[in-house]
């Protein structure tokens, strides 16, 4: 085997280049976002019914992209799950798994920044009446269950099927979570900011910029998982051959 | 109507009857569920005194937490237990539709949990000194029926899913409870309104009904996926 | 599943996110302005380091992936 030259597959160079370009684009996008936050966006902002919010509100420009992106990835988990159930291609499950982890990461950032915001604005570490914070917390618990499910079941066929099923149930739950959170009560500290155009532009641009970053991490993790699965397959085949040779 | 429909209906009735008869033989599930719920109520009574002001404000929540925790035992038992995997295997081999199996299991589990809830509620009224009249009872009952249905619909699918996983009983609760938070929220809010004699709002009822519809439909479809290539 | 490398990365990322808190507490507007500039530069540095690490690591993974694919093909032939 050592005499055979290792074939240099053509594919090895372009995925890396594509990945690097993606990375550079992400960094540039985030640089622009940070520049906007540092210079263009107002230092204080009015909020509905709350009077002025001081500079601490700026954390919103990291909080909001986290929230929107976590929805994007959680919807992806459901879509990939449905696609997996339809044709049985394990690649869909691999994608769903990573999407779930990245979504959980975004959700963690949402909850952490939301809590920090609540503390600096109203001196409470948690605000039960804020719909976005509470929804994010419930979704965090749901998808933490999804991620643990993916990690804990060993038999691959079972795991992929069950994960797809739960991914669908979890995503179906999201609108219910939103609609029912408002039952807790009217938000006493609404985290709503008055619609200044530069604020709106920055917050939605932040969603795009952070999406590039999250998508980069997603790609990275997916490739690692696929490589690890390929190694597992090799080992399984080698063991089978060994047992066959012994028999 | 075609023979197929009558056959399905008869199969469904037979399955429910059979589950019920099996349970009535030793009453394992209902007895353990109900005892656990009474224990939970008692523990809560020490955590929050029913006759205190906090107890008054928290009573609806305490009731439904008790129902949730105890009911999850019944849901867990839907597919886990001695000989259950053989039972399921037999059912899947029989000429009965998967959907029928799902609906039958949901119905029987629902009935078991409702029995537990009824007995628990009587104990609850005694502990929390609540006078019942027919109107309140009917309102509470319909709320409980709606919530329990949603609870069981999602639970049966997850129970089938976690029956064969190592540590599956913990997984069942880990996965099920977050999914139930919306409907739990709605029914506690609804129960509070009924207890305090306030007019009912539409939001809770919409959530309860919509959740039931969505989760019975999704639960049935996904149940068929979960048991598709059955292995013990 | 979570090896130390992964945990360290997510840990750094989390800390970076929480670190925005000092800027959040700035009361004086002028002080907040200067703090914000520093914070945003600091975050940019964190992003650059993270993405740089991902790119380098991905290049290594891609080469490994080729080796694995080659191995797989040989094993399948056997």
Topology:
The complex is a heterotrimer of chains A (247), B (232) and C (78).
Chain A: H1 13-40, E1 45-47, E2 51-53, H2 60-87, H3 90-122, H4 131-152, H5 156-181, H6 197-246
Antiparallel strand pairs in A: 1-2
Chain B: H1 3-26, H2 28-47, H3 53-76, H4 84-93, H5 98-128, H6 134-162, H7 168-195, H8 202-226
Helix pairs in contact in B: 1-5, 2-3, 2-5, 3-5, 3-6, 3-7, 5-6, 5-8, 6-7, 6-8, 7-8
Chain C: H1 4-18, H2 21-24, H3 29-77
How would you describe the overall organization of this protein?
The complex is a heterotrimer of chains A (247), B (232) and C (78). Chain A has 247 residues and is mostly helical. Helices cover 76% and strands 2% of the residues of chain A. In chain A, a hairpin with a 3-residue loop joins strand 1 (45-47) and strand 2. Chain B is mainly α. Chain B contains eight helices and no strands. The mean pLDDT of chain B is 90. In chain C, 23% of the residues are buried. Chain C is mainly alpha-helical and 78 residues long. Classes of the chains: A mainly alpha (247), B mainly alpha (232), C mainly alpha (78). At the A-C interface, helix 1, helix 3 and helix 6 of A face helix 1, helix 2 and helix 3 of C.
Radius of gyration of chain A: 22 Å
Shape of chain C: rod-shaped
The largest β sheet of chain C comes out as:
none
Task: Please state the average pLDDT score of chain C.
Answer: 71
Intertermini distance of chain C: 31 Å
Order of helices and strands of chain C: HHH
Sheet having the most strands of chain A: 2 strands, antiparallel
Strand content of chain A: under 5%
Distance between the termini of chain A: 24 Å
Summarize the model shown.
The complex is a heterotrimer of chains A (247), B (232) and C (78). Chain B is an all-alpha fold and 232 residues long.
């Amino acid at each position: 085997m050592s005499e055979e030259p290792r074939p240099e597959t053509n594919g090895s160079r372009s995925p890396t280049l594509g990945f690097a370009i993606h990375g550079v684009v992400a960094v540039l996008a985030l640089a622009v976002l940070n520049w906007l936050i540092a210079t263009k966006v107002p230092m204080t902002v009015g909020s509905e019914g709350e009077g002025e919010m001081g500079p601490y509100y700026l954390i919103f420009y990291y909080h909001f992209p986290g929230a929107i992106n976590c929805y994007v990835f959680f919807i992806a988990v459901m879509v990939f799950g449905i696609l997996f159930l339809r044709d049985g291609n394990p690649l869909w499950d691999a994608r769903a798994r990573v999407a779930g982890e990245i979504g959980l990461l975004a959700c963690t950032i949402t909850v952490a920044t939301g809590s920090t915001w609540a503390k600096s604005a109203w001196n409470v570490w948690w605000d039960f009446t804020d719909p976005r914070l509470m929804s994010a917390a419930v979704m965090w618990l749901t998808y933490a269950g999804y991620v643990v499910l993916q990690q804990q079941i060993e038999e691959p066929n079972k795991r992929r099927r069950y994960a797809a099923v739960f991914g669908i149930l979890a995503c179906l739950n999201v609108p219910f979570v939103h609609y029912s959170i408002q039952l807790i009560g009217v938000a006493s500290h609404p985290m709503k900011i008055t619609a200044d155009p530069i604020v709106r532009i920055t917050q939605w641009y932040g969603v795009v910029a952070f999406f590039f970053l999250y998508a980069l991490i997603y790609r990275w993790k997916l490739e690692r998982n696929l490589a690890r699965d390929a190694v597992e397959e090799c080992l399984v085949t080698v063991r089978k051959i060994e047992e066959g040779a012994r028999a | 109507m075609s023979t197929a429909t009558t056959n399905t209906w008869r199969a469904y009735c037979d399955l429910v009857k059979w589950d019920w008869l099996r349970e009535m033989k030793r009453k394992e599930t209902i007895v353990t569920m109900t005892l656990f719920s009474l224990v939970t109520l008692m523990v809560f009574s020490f955590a929050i005194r029913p006759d205190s002001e906090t107890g008054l404000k928290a009573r609806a929540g305490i009731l439904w937490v008790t129902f949730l925790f105890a009911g999850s035992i019944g849901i867990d038992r839907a597919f886990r237990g001695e000989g259950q995997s053989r039972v399921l295997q037999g059912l899947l081999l029989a000429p009965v539709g998967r959907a029928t199996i799902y609906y039958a299991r949901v119905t029987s589990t629902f009935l078991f949990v409702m029995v537990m809830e009824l007995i628990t509620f009587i104990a609850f009224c005694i502990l929390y000194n609540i006078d019942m009249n027919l109107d309140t009872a009917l309102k509470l009952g319909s709320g409980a029926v709606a919530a329990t249905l949603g609870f069981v619909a999602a639970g049966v699918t997850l129970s089938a899913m976690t029956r064969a996983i190592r540590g599956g009983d913990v997984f069942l609760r880990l996965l099920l409870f977050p999914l139930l938070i919306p409907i739990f929220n709605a029914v506690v809010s609804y129960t509070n309104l009924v207890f305090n004699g306030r007019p009912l709002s539409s939001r809770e009822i919409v959530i309860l009904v919509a959740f039931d519809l969505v989760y019975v439909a999704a639960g049935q479809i996904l149940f068929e996926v979960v048991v598709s290539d059955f292995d013990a | 599943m979570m090896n130390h490398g992964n945990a360290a990365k997510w840990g750094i990322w989390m800390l970076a996110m929480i670190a925005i808190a000092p800027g959040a507490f700035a009361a004086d507007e002028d002080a907040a302005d200067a703090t914000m500039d520093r914070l945003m530069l600091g975050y940019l540095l964190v992003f650059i380091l993270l993405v740089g690490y991902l790119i380098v690591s991905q290049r290594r993974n891609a080469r490994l992936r080729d080796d694995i694919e080659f191995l797989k093909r040989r094993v399948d032939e056997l």
